[in-house]
């Protein structure tokens, strides 16, 4: 065996410090990085422009009257109170309809269903497909359904909630499934090995552990429903409502619909109101998104 | 489902509330042109009777009558008189109603503010532009009048469900519903406003209120119905010289509703009583003395 | 609630052991291992299964809801005339039902949206997955995702009033009217960026670290690694993202209803206005169509076409996603 | 507990072939063998945990107190209560220490006079009581790995099983924690029949009364691999005087 | 190549402390030691692969032909080209065999007269040419594990590095494939300086000229663990006559 000294002798020297600019700093990679940055920048600048635009246009109308006043033929007197309350009614109803249903469906698919069974495979495929169905088609569905059961005035809270529920049900199912899947199988095994039944395991271990994920997914889905206008348009929700909605069968309008309605008015004041209501809606969505992210970061366990 | 049908969609059957004021709901639908009037009335009415819920939807005059004759609404807003087939529909359903002229309007033909050649158009010229024969052939202003510049026409107007559409086609093309189809029809008049504002060669038709409210976006042309060029103004409309496009706006009241629902009676009474303020707030032209008396007489017969 | 029921069911029949286990294997068992009925459990399973079946019912509902009026429509109008006719004037006296004009407008807005969303979305995805540190990614991603949460009405107004009117007509002095498929498509594209970015990023993040290490160890830089190793490996996922973007764009309603225009005509350029399939449905919904009338059925015929298009597109997407899931 | 002619399948794949074994009462039996030879598979089939894997199937009989746990009418849930299991990675529930122990008795509807006493007893038997008695309400996730594993053992004994199965219970623990668990096994053996899978031959030699050596056999014809039991006997015999060449090779580290 | 006073940190955690080593030219050096003692960490710091890990940091000097690879102005990409690396799990790109080999020369902008020749030469040196010469256009994913690993070696030498680092290159391979890789290392050693991390002491004894033994040291005060170099010498000396008690314990299997 050679000695270390021997073997080190005669090492060729080629400098590592090349004259050229370094790997990541060469023109190509740099330009590429700039292009990537720009992709994000365009999106963010767009977002900012949109917000600034809204603030400039609607800022002056963003005040108490927007929250407390009813619509009016005069922009100076008009507010979005019924629309705000209508949105709350519709979204709350949607939440009550969808979350239990979506969570139950997800539990079935993830915990109980035999994944190879044709029925469950159909359900699975279906859920994926439903998530991509255009929202306006859900409006058509709700419209046809209400017509079928003979409801005449389709512009009612439960009708709107029905359309939006169908719209976000697949989203909630998918989010819940992901949350459930993130619960490690060791937890399930541990529970089952103690003699717990499948449902006990699901109810006492899997579900509690996936609550943050379900909450995050549901909030995001509901925030999408909150901003939807198209399916409600089909139910004829484009109305002047001068009272507070007060029940499932009450007539209603929602913020997006009110915004759409106001922009259709001739008076400039209404356009400002529309912008102000958009600020409100955007604020609400920011809040919901923020809450979802907070829950995700705060409660989601790293197993 | 049964419950929904039974309740007919709106809460609270209505009636006199304990404190003596009226309560309950009033459902209005129909013309989008007339809607601002009814909304203004509802707006003012809220100061009188805060417990009455007035909803105003905008399905267009035709759509409104369809619902009205299906007994879904108490009041139908209309920008033209009821048609024979609609009368039949209501008769078949056993609906009795009363027609009330509630305001006047000058159906305005509007062009882009930059347009300095089309100051006055004859009914023939309008027919040349809008007639069914024009479809696909009349596409340039210079085809309307050789003195007009070489500028492409862009056409905007009311959609087929609207009374404005019916009235305009009848007045200009001699037959209700007869019109070229290659224009942008919309139930949302603001689309017409934006369309005309955004295209130098644009021409459109809509209610006078939109013109008054958007002087920067468009200007109304004078119309020559055979007796010289007349601009649409409050006076020319009221005295009938703005012909053939001066028109009356109507509400149709369900007699049974008026008799049986105190909230409908007090709302309609209030509406007719304060038509001048309402018309002003909604940017329409009020009734003449004669028209107002007729309206009050009509109501009196209903008791 | 439910769990309590099951627990007490169980309690009634369990023979709880008392002492320590002492039975040698030869002796008879202390308690039988016999199964027992757990009715609560069975009911719950049924309920869950029913909940899942709602998904199927919804689809069946959609199909029936669309099909019945659509059949009514096709009794009056030839399928061929509908699919290949080039004049769309369903609500006029002189009616015709050629859907091609609506389809061309949809194609234009979708194509423009993809031209915006695909490059920008992929750029954002590569940045987030290959360049951004976790903290940067955790801030940027929610911001990006906000774009998907903005109500489409707000987008629509922005497209019409700012992009079309202020930017296109005032600043750029483009020869365009009040509406254009370009403005609607651009804004729709921005709306879709998060969809494309988020799914492609998932696909790229799923590429095993070892491939990146292999590339770096050969002296490749980040750009080369991203473009030549990570991107090709994530290709099917990226395709799925694009395909999902397509179905979002085809189905988007309010933006096109507000900003693309409402004249059903064959669109031949991006600065023209045009009515999309969804735009037609929304516009028609503003009026009123009686159940059973031809106008009503027309809505559903277009709705059915829309549904079928997104269905086909989505099937392609699911297949692609499955491919990239299988790859690792 | 006796295993008779057992084959275990995952779908078409036969993971374990023709195993015959008898676990001695109040003895510790170690299952050893190279990776993938089906030790975990066999262990999981002893308390029907394999039922939960799609396509898993057991042929042959596994007799528990003379009753085949796979025969019709046997409730797998009862089987699992009576035959406890401890896993390779400690898997405490994300609940308090107390609730971790109380979970089993609660879900199985065990009649207990005082849950507090049961919790204390279980933790004491698992040699964990002293360390956690002041923080029973704290989350079990906060415990160290070794403590977590002992908690899992305490949890397993809380439902009073007869048999405890352990699948590499010390694989993720440091040597000191491992030693504590080994000591604990020695104590538990007084009351329970224990079956342990381990990769660590020293461990098998230290704790087990009997040892079963498995290996993966490749079929000449099809090239399919399957786990077979090579040799079973007292630990001393297996380690000092194996009958089979393969056992000797494995033990002496020449292969695997 | 020389390692001088090197500490490697992950954030605040010091994974490796005070290592001094010199790798002989055209020799194979093995790094051995128990799990977690920082062998991979050190290896990765030799070609700046650690740069890619957030928070990873190297103190001290690593001299390559007398030049500190961490000094300012050194291009880490050039370092990696000159010091190749082969990983534990074969990681061929999901491309054709040909493209796998051609990738390195292409991305580093190497001037090659004929890429075909270079591919053939690299594959031949990696003793893979005969097996794949007829399916160069097929995906590398279709190869067996051992072939994939040789492909990765071929890929590493395609950019003509001076040094090849290998992190447990045979850990996921069967004995026959392992033997082939070991033979290959012996051949490559004629031209390259090789540093290999292995868990398999027999392997170290078989292939390495020199061996460095590392262990994880737990600090008395803080309880922090860090990797330290215990002993470095010719393989024969380390295995037959270790100076340090810990080395002897490890080699004889008494610990770890
Ligand atoms: N859920 C499963 N589905 C299909 N095959 C499986 C499953 N689990 C294990 N196998 C296969 O069964 C065989 C035996 O696996 P098993 O886990 O029982 O081995 P083991 O002896 O426990 O190995 P180790 O020592 O690595 O834990 C292996 O070939 C494995 O791939
Ligand atoms: N990316 C990382 N971030 C933080 N800590 C790390 C990272 N990679 C490794 N470590 C830690 O550094 C220490 C040394 O790890 P390393 O992988 O170098 O050990 P090793 O000797 O290669 O072990 P093995 O033989 O298991 O591969 C370990 O404590 C490990 O947890
Ligand atoms: Mg195992
Ligand atoms: Mg390592
Ligand atoms: O909405 P219209 O007044 O045009 O019917």
UniProtKB/TrEMBL annotation, chain A:
Ranges of residues in domain ABC transmembrane type-1: 84-292
Localization annotation: Cell membrane
Domain of life the protein comes from: Bacteria
Membrane topology recorded in Swiss-Prot or TrEMBL: Multi-pass membrane protein
Region: Disordered, residue numbers: 1-21
Keyword Transmembrane helix: yes
UniProt main location, coarse: membrane
Keywords: Cell membrane, Membrane, Transmembrane, Transmembrane helix, Transport
Pfam families: BPD_transp_1 (PF00528)
Transmembrane segments: 30-56, 83-109, 130-150, 156-175, 232-253, 273-295
InterPro entries reported in the protein's UniProt record: MetI-like, MetI-like_sf, Phosphate_PstA
Its job: Part of the binding-protein-dependent transport system for phosphate; probably responsible for the translocation of the substrate across the membrane.
PANTHER family: PHOSPHATE TRANSPORT SYSTEM PERMEASE PROTEIN PSTA, PHOSPHATE TRANSPORT SYSTEM PERMEASE PROTEIN PSTA-RELATED
Family indicated by similarity: Belongs to the binding-protein-dependent transport system permease family. CysTW subfamily.
Listed NCBIfam families: 3a0107s02c
Protein name: Phosphate transport system permease protein PstA
Automatic annotation (TrEMBL), chain C:
Main location: membrane
PROSITE patterns, alphabetized: ABC_TM1
Coiled-coil stretches noted in the UniProt entry, renumbered to this chain: none
Residues in ABC transmembrane type-1 domain copies: 103-317
Top-level taxon: Bacteria
SUPFAM superfamilies xrefs: MetI-like (SSF161098)
TM helices/strands, residue ranges: 46-74, 107-131, 143-164, 176-199, 229-247, 299-321
Pfam family, one: BPD_transp_1
InterPro entries recorded: MetI-like, MetI-like_sf, Phosphate_PstC
Subcellular location as annotated: Cell membrane; Membrane
Keywords: Cell membrane, Membrane, Phosphate transport, Transmembrane, Transmembrane helix, Transport
Low complexity compositional bias, start-end: 1-32
Region (Disordered): 1-36
Membrane topology classification: Multi-pass membrane protein
Record-stated family: Belongs to the binding-protein-dependent transport system permease family. CysTW subfamily.
Known function: Part of the binding-protein-dependent transport system for phosphate; probably responsible for the translocation of the substrate across the membrane.
Protein name: Phosphate transport system permease protein
Organism per entry: Agromyces lapidis
Gene name of this polypeptide: pstC
From TrEMBL, chains D, E:
Gene that produces this protein: pstB
UniProt cross-references to InterPro entries, sorted A to Z: AAA+_ATPase, ABC_transporter-like_ATP-bd, ABC_transporter-like_CS, P-loop_NTPase, PstB-like
Domain ABC transporter: 1-241
Species for this entry: Agromyces lapidis
Tree of life domain: Bacteria
PANTHER family: ABC TRANSPORTER I FAMILY MEMBER 17
Designated name of the protein: Phosphate ABC transporter ATP-binding protein PstB
GO molecular function: ATP binding
UniProt KW keywords: ATP-binding, Nucleotide-binding, Translocase, Transport
